């Protein structure tokens, strides 16, 4: 049977655990992989306390940044975008409303830092006149919702 050692994780490792967890691993894995890469430290009372302290500081930082992101969510919820496209009599658009159209509308409203990949469209492309809600993914698991009104061009 191989000998094992207890280590405290300094990083989230998918197959082992998350930051601050005390795990038992084989000596060779700890000596050759975890310790040289700075992913873990040998478990001792001092190391465990230090990791827990760093974890608490990180949690405070994340809470502060999440609060800032929640303010952005509230600001985006107030925005209503209007997109005018050519449409037939039955309300079907001749073209479609894509994420690029939504980005242009957001830039016109003064929101520049949204990435196209972060938009969650209700459908791949919007092909009918009406009201829609478009999601915007933000860090820390937050999603903002922007109202989108698609109207016919006069």
Question: Can you describe this structure in just a few lines?
Answer:
With 154 residues, the protein is α+β, with helices and mostly antiparallel strands. Helix content is 33%, strand content 33%. Strand 8 (130-138) and strand 9 form a beta hairpin.
Q: What share of the residues does DSSP label as strand, in percent? A: 25-35%
CATH level-4 homologous superfamily of the largest domain: Ribosomal protein L9, C-terminal domain
List the total number of helices. 3
* Number of strand elements: 9
Low-confidence stretches: none
CATH topology of the largest domain: Ribosomal Protein L9, domain 2
Overall number of domains: 2
CATH class of the largest domain: Alpha Beta
CATH architecture of the largest domain: Roll
Cα separation of the termini: 79 Å
Give a quick account of the main beta sheet: strands, pairing sense, barrel closure: 4 strands, mixed
Mean pLDDT: 88
Lateral strand order in the biggest sheet: 4-9-8-6
Structural class: alpha+beta
How do the helices and strands follow one another from N- to C-terminus? EEHEHEEHEEEE
């Amino acid at each position: 049977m191989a000998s094992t050692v207890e280590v405290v994780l300094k990083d989230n490792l998918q197959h082992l655990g998350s930051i601050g967890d005390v795990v038992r691993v084989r000596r060779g894995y700890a000596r050759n992989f975890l310790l040289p890469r700075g992913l873990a430290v040998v478990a001792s009372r001092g190391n465990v306390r230090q990791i827990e302290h760093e974890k608490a500081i990180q949690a405070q930082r994340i809470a502060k940044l999440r609060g800032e992101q929640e303010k952005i969510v509230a600001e985006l919820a107030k925005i209503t975008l209007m997109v005018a496209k050519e449409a037939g009599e039955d309300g079907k658009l001749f073209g479609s409303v894509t994420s690029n159209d939504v980005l242009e509308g957001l830039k016109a409203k003064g929101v520049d830092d949204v990435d196209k990949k972060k938009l969650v469209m209700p459908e791949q492309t919007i092909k009918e006149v009406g009201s829609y809600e478009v999601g915007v993914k933000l860090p820390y698991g937050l999603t903002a919702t922007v109202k989108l009104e698609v109207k016919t061009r006069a």
